[in-house]
Amino acid sequence: MDALLNIEDLRTYFFTEAGVVKAVDGISVTVDRGEIHGLVGESGSGKSVTALSTMRIVPRPGKIIGGKIIFDGTDLLSLKENEMRKIRGGKIAMVFQDPMSSLDPLYTIGNQLVEAIRVNNKEKSKQQAKDEAIGLLEAVGIPEPARRFDQYPHELSGGMKQRIAIARALSRMPTLLFADEPTTNLDVTIQAQVLDLMKDLKQKFNMTMVLITHDMGIIAEMTQTVTVVYAGQLFEHADTRSIFLNPKHPYTEALLKALPRLDMRRTLVSVPGNIPNLINPPSGCRFHPRCPYAIEICKEKVPQVEDAGNGHLVACHRWKELSLVGV
Amino acid sequence: MINLQNTLLEVRDLVKYFDVYSKGILRKKLVGKVHAVDHINFTVGKAETLALVGESGCGKTTTAKVLLDLEEPTSGKVFFDGVDVYETFRSGKSEEKLRLRRNMQLVFQNPYVSLDPRMTIYDILSEPLIIHRHVEKSKWKDKVYELLEMVGLEQYHAERYPHEFSGGQRQRVAIARAMAVDPQMIICDEPVSSLDVSIRAQILNLLLDLQKSKGVSYIYISHDLSSVRQLSHRVAVMYLGEIVEYGSSDEVFTKPLHPYTQALISAIPIPDPRTKVNRIILPGEVPSPINPPSACRFHPRCPYVQDICKTVKPPLEDTGNGHMVSCHFWQKFA
């Protein structure tokens, strides 16, 4: 398969007064053209910072200190800022979790869309851009797009705002779309609408998507491949079916066992302990204090990422001997 | 039917409207009412969990507040263990009020704001003991340690402050605080929504264990139907202030009779790639509760809407086994 995005051994640290927070500490992600890739992890796992690093918009005091990000043959980390600016919002776009804060409350919907359309394309007339913007609003399923064009974000509901944010991300036909928890703030029936829209748009525009979420249900339904991250590190990468039916990392197994399910009542097996502190992460494998299969070596040595066959990557000392259970 | 001997809480025709005024400094005009809770009835049995589910704005949190008289009800009655709750809070003796408060506890969604940052965990857990005086002063320390152990924390945690704890641990403290007075009922308002997946299961299991060992009843308020399935014996589905379906958890989840419940259940992504997605996508959004739609409030979004739905309000009918539904056409789905 043809990789569109290849993140290799990315390291993004935050140099805070309390110490160095290793938010991303060796995450690799490969995303093939035309697929929806799931980036799954809990809070502090580094999934959002990975996306921000790819766009090179890591907020201070964060800094990318190592690794490579190859997008469509170009190493993004070697680009000059003005070259990067063309890619940002152009070939790579992003939809954030909270549409209330990603849209500017002082500008109309139309204004924000026209700005996005014309930002690197000044030869388009304002009228052309307006027509295009209304077309976009229609594409993301906004009723009465011409009227909405002149409204402000506060006049719209959360679901509508997220559709606007998606429309804006699509305005320059990106090849790659990052969606960071795009439905987490929405009600379930609205979430269903937005997920449906995203599937639809992906088909229509043949976009490649990286879907960042903690919701294994959304991962199962939407994605073709998955990367599981924990405490800033890559734990497992495989096609979605293998991740769910044949997990090779104890953390993935633990996540699946801890999930309440709608279609059955069962005993939840909880993961003991807490999510580690990234200033002082546990030694060796970062999951070892919570792992039911941990042995001596797990405390001492960081496990290497190994290929378990067919591109199923896993970072665990014991993957060969463990037989883990999926869903 | 419900065994009255076993009923702990009974809610009768409870209503809460909020007045909406027009803007203006000198003259404010009443322009409408938010129908937050609109004539709801339900019961909660001893050692039972009733879940109130629905989307934002459906009135589930307002129901909790009104039950505890934190918001004054517009009309309706609530009986707790045979005692009229509002009458007691209006004109009862202070011991009677205290006894009710003690037996109806509350755990909030966000443990980052529900614990006082200036108090140590010991202070937080002993405050209910100071107020209710149900434990002798010489035994307070033991009681706090017992509570910490009950929720899976250690004795040395007593000397710490909330900021030293993770979200999951804070929620344990909040649960321990509610348990400090040995309540008969705890209202849990989205207790796991702000927690990570691996921590959620810990808290859900803790709630289940406490129910088993202490016989406490829960009203579990949540929009997360998967966790509702794990925890609750019975479910009430709310839409725009009304209960549209009510019944045992197994019945409602496997045989939903209201089109809204069906859509809500089908909207949840199942964490198994082998599951075929068979989703009912509802058009539009939840309408404003200020001027809710006529007759059946779900009719503007309902995929099976008929003319009668716009003119005649469907009653909450018993379809057997106490499974109640408010839809003109439930027989079609049975």
Cα Rg of chain B: 21 Å
Give the assembly state of these chains. heterodimer
Instruction: Write down the domain tally of chain A.
Output: 2
Largest beta-sheet details of chain A: 8 strands, mixed
Q: What is the CATH homology-level superfamily of chain B? A: P-loop containing nucleotide triphosphate hydrolases
Q: Please give the CATH class of the largest domain in chain A.
A: Alpha Beta
- Quick one: how many beta strands of chain A? 12
Topology:
The complex is a heterodimer of chains A (327) and B (334).
Chain A: E1 3-16, E2 19-32, E3 36-40, H1 47-54, E4 62-71, E5 74-75, H2 81-87, E6 92-95, H3 99-102, H4 109-118, H5 126-139, H6 145-148, H7 158-170, E7 176-180, H8 188-205, E8 208-213, H9 216-222, E9 225-230, E10 233-239, H10 240-245, H11 250-258, H12 296-300, E11 306-307, E12 313-314
Parallel strand pairs in A: 3-8, 3-9, 6-7, 7-8
Antiparallel strand pairs in A: 1-2, 1-4, 4-5, 9-10, 10-12, 11-12
Helix pairs in contact in A: 4-5, 4-7, 5-7
Chain B: E1 7-21, E2 30-45, E3 49-53, H1 60-67, E4 75-80, E5 83-84, H2 85-91, H3 94-103, E6 104-107, H4 121-132, H5 140-150, H6 167-179, E7 185-189, H7 197-214, E8 217-222, H8 225-231, E9 234-239, E10 242-248, H9 249-254, H10 259-266, H11 307-311, E11 317-318, E12 324-325, H12 330-333
Helix pairs in contact in B: 4-5, 4-6, 6-7
